[in-house]
Amino acid sequence: MPGQTLFQKLWDAHVVHVEPDGTSLLYIDRHLVHEVTSPQAFEGLKLAHRTPRRVDAAVAVPDHNVPTTDRSQGIADPVSRLQVETLDANCAEFGIREFKMNDVRQGIVHVIGPEEGLTLPGMTVVCGDSHTSTHGAFGALAFGIGTSEVEHVLATQCLWQKPSKTMLVKVEGQLGRGVTAKDVALAVIGRIGTAGGTGYALEFGGSAIRGLSMEGRMTLCNMAIEAGARAGMVAVDETTIEYVRGRPFSPVGEAWDKAVAWWKTLHSDADAVFDQVVELDAAAIEPQVTWGTSPEMVTTVHGRVPDPAAAPSEVKRHDWTRALDYMGLAAGTPIERIAIDKVFIGSCTNSRIEDLREAAAVVRGRKKSASVKLAMVVPGSGLVKQQAEAEGLDKVFLEAGFEWREPGCSMCLAMNADRLEPGERCASTSNRNFEGRQGQGGRTHLVSPAMAAAAGIAGHFVDVRHF
Amino acid sequence: MQAFTSHHGLVVPLDRANVDTDAIIPKQFLKSIKRAGFGPNLFDEWRYLDHGEPGMDPASRQPNPEFVLNFPRYQGASILLARDNFGCGSSREHAPWALEDYGIRAIIAPSFADIFYNNCFKNGILPIVLDAGVVDRLFRECEAAEGYRLAIDLAAQTVTTPAGEVLAFEVDAGRKHRLINGLDDIGLTLLQSDKIKAYEERRKIEAPWLFV
Ligand code: SF4
Question: Structure pTM?
Answer without folding.
Answer: 0.96
